[in-house]
Amino acid sequence: MRTTVTCKTCRRLRMSVCGREKCAFKRKPYPPGVHGKAFRRAGSEFGVQLAEKQKLKFLYGLRERQFRNYVQGALKQKDAGTSDAIINALESRLDNAVYRLGFSPTRAAARQVVNHGHVLVNGKRVNIPSYRLKIGDEVKLREASKQKGPFANLEILIKKAAPPSWLELDRVLYAGKMMAPPSGEGLGKGYNMNAIVEYYSR
Hints:
Elements: H1 7-13, H2 45-59, H3 64-76, H4 82-91, H5 94-100, H6 107-115, E1 119-121, E2 124-125, E3 138-141, H7 154-160, E4 167-170, E5 175-178, H8 193-200
Antiparallel strand pairs: 1-2, 1-3, 3-5, 4-5
Helix pairs in contact: 2-8, 3-4, 5-6
C-alpha cells in the first residue's frame, strides 16, 4: 500500500501535509474538483474526528494500521498524557528525525534515505524508518552516502534546517542527537489531538 501523499490529499484535508515547499494547497486552498471553491461542509462529529486523524496520519506518511498502533499504544500509557504520548511516538521515529534534522526535504524522502541504508544510529546502519530513537542516540549520515543523489542539495538543506529543541544538529559533521523527549514543537496548531483520541476510543 502506498503512503505517498499527493497535493490533492492536502487540498481535500484543507491543510498541507505532503511536506513539499510548492504544495498546491498554498495556491488553491480549497478541495479539488469543479465545485471545490464553493464546497462547504460543517461535518458530523465523526467526520471531524476522521479528518483530524487523516491529517496527522498523512503528515507522517503512515498506513492506517501503523497509525492506529501508535494511538492505541499511547492510550495504554499511564506516565504521560495520551496526546503527548502519540506525538512522542511519531516524532521519535528515525525517518522523522532525519527529516527534522534537515537531511531530507520531506518525510517521504527521509523514509527512502533510511530504507536505502544511508543513516547510522550510534555508528550502526539502521534501515528501518519506524526505528524508535532514545535520548542520547546519535543520527548520522554515512560518509559513503553523502556524495550520492539523495544528498545533492544537502548543504542547502542543512543551512535552512531549524530542528526542534529536542534535537541537536551538527551542521559540519551532518549528525544529530536526541537530547530530550520529543514534543509537538513545529507541528503548528492545525491538529486536534482530542478528536484523534476520541476517534480511536470509540
